[in-house]
Design a protein that fits this description.
Elements: E1 4-8, H1 18-35, E2 39-42, H2 56-65, E3 71-78, H3 84-97, E4 102-107, H4 114-120, H5 124-129, H6 131-142, E5 159-164, H7 167-176, E6 180-182, H8 191-201, E7 213-221, H9 225-231, H10 233-243, H11 257-260, H12 263-272, E8 276-279, H13 281-295, E9 299-303, H14 309-323
Parallel strand pairs: 1-2, 1-9, 2-3, 3-4, 4-5, 5-6, 6-7, 7-8, 7-9
Helix pairs in contact: 1-14, 3-6, 7-8, 13-14
């Protein structure tokens, strides 16, 4: 049985609020805990009207405080936006509050556009170039070996992951002997090559003795394939709005939406969302098994942008059933 985890962007849907999004994220985490999901991760994005998880470490603490056993973490913290010491302190604090339950996924992308990058007041190009050194600095703080003492942070039991959607992250995770999470749920183009690089060049470390690969995977599930296809149009609209420069709150589903798009946008969605299972429990189970068999994933991180919160919870319930949790 392949373990399942949850990736939550704390989506803000049309007609709702950020406060409600946070309440929904808590309810999702609690449901995931009951259903047997291993972890729930929040992702750092900035300047996105439909994504409320910008202050990621704050939201992680809120969700960890409302749950008991499920691991809670960042998928991820975009390290070029931050000083490594501050991340070590934030996640050291989380570990002190919720010991043995905190994950720290570190990514190299800024999670924003150029205007937001300027507002963050970071030279993101230079910071991205320092990403390997910054990852190692964060880990050094946790070991109590940083250039200064991280309090909290020194001695923290935080699981560090490298995130990526290219060969760069795969190579870095392999070199450092860290678990690797690939963003196949929205950037699957380099998936096969990244898996090969990570597994081929992995060096055992004090953190991990063999490769451990988690893959992002979209699941939108309900009682019938036809209903699931309609629910999936909210996520499709969100991706099209983003690529056409009109990001907004998550819209309600529109039957027939995908078929109404120009051919080039239909092709874009087919590429972007190729790592997906959409349908009934039988369809989702079959597609998930095929994906795991093809990739050899050690764990799947399931995500699905669904407009109705009850339908979203039901989708994760069906995904757990399909995976045999």
């Amino acid at each position: 049985m392949t373990p399942l985890s949850i990736l939550d962007l704390s989506p803000v849907v049309q007609g709702s609020s950020v406060r409600q999004s946070f309440a929904n994220s808590v309810a999702l985490a609690q449901a995931g805990e009951r259903l047997g999901y291993r972890r729930i991760w929040l992702a750092e994005h900035h300047g996105m009207p439909g994504i409320a998880s910008a202050a990621t470490s704050v939201l992680i603490g809120h969700i960890a405080g409302a749950t008991s056993t499920i691991r809670v973490g960042a998928g991820g913290i975009m390290l070029p936006n931050h000083a490594p010491l501050l991340i070590a302190e934030q996640f050291g604090t989380l570990d002190a509050l919720y010991p043995g339950r905190i994950d720290l996924g570190l990514g190299r992308a800024p999670g924003s556009d150029q205007k937001v990058s300027q507002a963050i007041r970071r030279d993101l190009h230079a910071a991205s170039e320092r990403f390997p050194q910054d990852v190692q600095e964060v880990m050094a703080y946790f070991r109590g070996e940083g250039p200064v003492l991280a309090v909290p942070g020194g001695g923290a039991n935080v699981d560090v992951w490298v995130l990526g959607s290219s060969l760069f992250g795969a190579s870095l995770a392999a070199h450092l002997g860290l678990p690797y999470a690939f963003a196949s749920h929205f950037a699957p183009q380099a998936l096969s090559q990244a898996i090969e690089v990570y597994r081929s060049y992995f060096k055992p470390s004090t953190y991990l003795d063999k490769p451990y690969l988690m893959l992002g995977y979209n699941v939108i599930a309900t009682d019938t394939d036809e209903e699931a296809a309609v629910l999936a149009t909210s996520q499709q609209q969100a991706f099209v709005n983003l690529v056409t420069g009109q990001p907004g709150r998550l819209p309600p589903p529109i039957p027939g939406y995908r078929e109404s798009l120009p051919a080039e946008l239909q092709a874009h969605l087919a590429r972007t969302l190729s790592c997906s299972a959409v349908g009934s429990v039988e369809t989702v189970a079959r597609q998930m098994r095929a994906f795991v068999s093809e990739t050899g994933a050690d764990e799947l991180m399931v995500t699905g942008m669904i407009f109705d919160h009850a339908a979203r919870l039901r989708s994760y319930e069906i995904a757990a059933q399909a995976a045999g949790l």
